[in-house]
Amino acid sequence: MLRKKLILLILLLPAIKVLSQKKEVPTPQWRPKYHFTPEKNWTNDPNGLLFLNGEFQLYYQHNPFENKWGHMSWGHATSKDMIQWRHLPVAIPEIVTKDTTTWIYSGSAVVDKNNTSGFGINGKPPIIAIFTADQPKQHKESQFIAYSNNNGLSYTQYSHNPVIDLNKSDFRDPNVFWYEPAKQWIMTVSMVNEHMVRIYGSKNLKEWTRLSDFGPAGYTRNGWECPSLLPLVVDNDPKNIKWVMLVSSGGDHGPLIQYFVGDFDGETFKDDNNGTKVLPVDYGDAFYAAIAWRDAPQNKKVLLGWMQDGRRETYPWKGQMSIPHDLSLKTTEEGLRLVQEPSSFVTKSLAKYSTEKALLKKNMPINDTRINLSKERPFAGNSYWIEAEFAVDKAKKVGFNIVENPDITKNVTVGYDAEHGQLFIDCTISEMGNKSRRNLEQRAPLKAINGVVKIQVLVDNSSLEVFGNGGEKVISTMIYPDINATNLSVFAEGKAVIKNMKIWDFNQK
After folding, report:
1. H/E element holding 426?
2. C-alpha span between 395 and 367 (Å, rounded)
3. Which end of the chain is more exposed for a tag (fewer CB within 10 A), N or C?
4. Strand 325-332 and strand 302-307: pairing?
5. What CA–CA distances, in Å, run from 185 to 116, 131, 216?
C-alpha cells in the first residue's frame, strides 16, 4: 500500500531527524502564497475537482482535528482564480458508528445534469461524490457515493452503500466521468496490488458493471493508485483527441505518476505503446496523486497534485497542492508526449497578487559569471515566479541560484545543463549534511530549440516547480530555506544570453 507507506514515512521523518524538536512551532516562512494550503491541519490528495457557478471547487484529503494523517475526511475550498481560496467547512466527514469507523478516502465528484441518480430535487441536478470508504478495523476498502443538493457544501451518504465491494483491503480512488457516446458514467478505480486499473460503467451512478481492466503495464514495482482517464487535444487541434491514463505508482527515488497515451472506445483503454514505456508526469520527488478538473472553462483539462515530502514539520498546516497544470499532447520524435503548462487561469492573475512592477531583462549577456538580482527586486522574499529564455548554444550551464543565504554559501540551483541536454534542480549545497534528503539532484531530459531554452521557475517558500520549454518537462520538489536565505542570482558557465526574463514577486496571499 504505497500511499500509506509514503504517508507513514512523511510522519516519521521529522521525528527521526530531530527527536528533541518542540512540536507545534509555527512556520510562516514556509507557508506558500500562491499555492493552496488548508488553514490548518493535514492535507494530502486533491479530490472531487469541479468548476461550478464560476468557481473552482477543490475537495481534498483532510484531517480536521490534527496536523498529521488520520480521521480522513473531505475538506473543501473554492476559488475564482486558483490563487486566492475560500476555506469552507468539511464537506464529507469520517463516519463513526458503534460498530466501525469509515474514513473518506480519495475519489471524484460529478454534476449529475440529467439526474440519472434520482437524487436531485426541484429540478436541480445533484452533485454526486464517488469515493473510497476505508474501514481500518475490517481491513477493507470499497466504493461509496454521497449526494449534495446545496452546491456541494455538504453531502448525504447513499443508504445502500457500498456501490462496489470486492472485499479487498486495497481497492481505491474512483475517478468518474460521463461518456456521451455510450450515454453512461465511466469509473476508473485502482486494483492496487494487481497493478491494474479496473474500468466500470453505470447508467445511474448506483449500479456498476465491470467493463475491462488495464494493466499491468509500465512501472509495477509499487502499487497503483489514483487512476484517471482523460481526453486531451493533440498539437492544439481540437479535432485530434487522444486518451491519457494517469496512474500514481510510486517510484525508486520518490513519488512517481506515470501516464499512458492511447484510445478509449467506451469500454477498453488501449495503450499505443502496449505498456512497454514508463512515461513520468513529473521528474521530481514531491508530486503525487494528481487528478484533473475535467469541466474547466474553454474545455481545458487542468491537473492538480499533492506536494509533500515529510522532511520538515510545518505548522499549523501540513501539505499543499501544486500549481494547476493545463494539459495537452504534443507530437515529438519519440511519439505523443504530455505537455503541462502552469494554468492560464493562474498566470492571468499574476499581476494581481504580485508587486506592482515585475523585474524585466532583455538581451543581457552572462558570460562565466553570477549576477545578483536581489537588489533590483521590489519585494525580496522566497515567493516568486520566473519566466526566462536563454540562448545556450555557447554555454555549459545556465540558470538561477535561489534561496541563497547572505554570504552565498548555501543555495538551490535551478537551470539547464546544455552539455547533457537536461533540465535540473540541484539541492546539494543547500542540503549539505542533511541525511534525510535523498534526491539531491533531480533531472529531466530536455532539448534546446534552435539554441534557446525556456525555463519557468516557481518558488513559493517551501515548494519549487520548474517547467522546461513550455511544459515539455516538469520537476517538482520541496525546499525549506532559512528565513534570511532570500537572495536570488542568475548565472552561466560559458557564454549565454538572457533573451527575455520576467520575475513576479508575491507580496500577499
Report:
1. strand 422-426
2. 8
3. C
4. antiparallel
5. 10, 15, 24
Q: Which of 417, 361, 359, 420 is nearest to 389 (CA)?
A: 361
Specify the residue for cell string 552565498.
Answer: 408
Q: For 119-133, 279-293, 344-358, which range has the lowest pLDDT when averaged over its residues?
A: 344-358
Percent share of the chain, pLDDT over 90? 84
Q: What is the DSSP letter of 313?
A: -
Is-catalytic flag, 45?
yes
Q: Where are the domains of the chain?
A: 2-345, 354-505
Residue with cell 503541462: 340
The answer to whether the bond into 316 is cis (omega within 30° of 0) is yes
Beta-bridge partners for 387: 456, 502
Q: What is the fold of 2-345?
A: Tachylectin-2; Chain A (2.115.10)
Report strand pairing: 41-52 vs 317-318. parallel
Q: Would you place residue 430 in the very low, low, confident or very high pLDDT band (cuts 50, 70, 90)?
A: confident
Identify the weakest region by mean pLDDT among 132-146, 260-274, 422-436: 422-436
State how far the Cα of 184 lies from the Cα of 205, in Å rounded to an integer.
Answer: 9
CB-based contact 310:462 (threshold 8 Å): no
d(CA 178, CA 182): 9
Compute the residue count for the chain: 509
Predicted model pTM: 0.95
Find, among 335, 339, 266, the residue nearest to 302 by Cα: 339
Rama region for 461: left / alpha / beta (φ>0; ψ in -120 to 50; rest): left
Cell of 204: 445511474
* pLDDT-wise least confident of 13-22, 23-32, 158-167: 13-22
Grid cell for residue 236: 492544439
Residue % of the chain over a pLDDT of 70: 93
Amino acid residing at 368 = D
Residue type, 376: E
Contacts of 425 (CB under 8 A, 6+ apart): 284, 412, 413, 414, 441, 442, 443, 464, 466, 475, 477
Average pLDDT value for residue range 471-494? 95
Domain 354-505 = CATH 2.60.120.560: yes
Q: Which residues of 183-216 are buried (b: 16+ CB within 10 A; e: fewer)?
A: ebbbbbbbbbebbbbbbbbbebbbebeebbebbe
* Strand segments (E) across 9-163: 41-52, 55-62, 73-79, 86-92, 95-96, 101-111, 127-135, 140-148, 156-157
Among 45, 170, 326, 417, the active-site one is 45
| Burial status of residue 182 (CB atoms within 10 A of its CB: 0-12, 13-18, 19 or more) | middle
Q: Check residue 276 and give its pLDDT.
A: 95
Task: State the DSSP string of 340-398.
Answer: EEE-HHHHTTHHHHB-SS-EEEEEEEEEEEEEE-GGG-SS-SSEEEEEEEEEEEEEEEE
Considering only CA atoms, which of 190, 187, 192, 163 is closest in space to residue 177?
187
Q: Rounded to whole angstroms, how far apart are CA atoms 56 and 93?
A: 21
